Amino acid sequence: MITFVQKGDYSNTDRFLHKLLNKKGSLVDFDKYGQLGVEALASHTPKKTGKTAASWKYEIEKNANGVSIVWSNDNINDNVSIAVILQYGHGTRSGAYVQGIDYINPAIAPIFKQLSNDAWNEVTNK
Length: 126
Prior knowledge:
Strand order of the largest sheet: 1-2
Number of strands: 6
Distance between the termini: 37 Å
Largest sheet: 2 strands, antiparallel
Shape: elongated
Strand content: 15-25%
Oligomer: single chain
């Protein structure tokens, strides 16, 4: 025979679930993090003219599996995203290669960490 014994109560879980039921929308303000991401990306983007840094935007996508923040950059030259070639590098017309600069990951990592921490704090907030 298998026996399960439970000590304590589910008051924290119950409180959390009631908060979810009574709260409209999401526990996380995705627009806040989208904008923080845009600001971080703009400040970390290598600047020659500043056009690529000023071209960051974000969109919130919701579907049955969850919510995503999609950052994009609309500085396109000859069908090539300038943000992408700055990140990964590119060949030149003369045959040379320009090394990429990893600026996106260091810019966005603190935003992911903050979002994760804030969501966890919201979930565990008593």
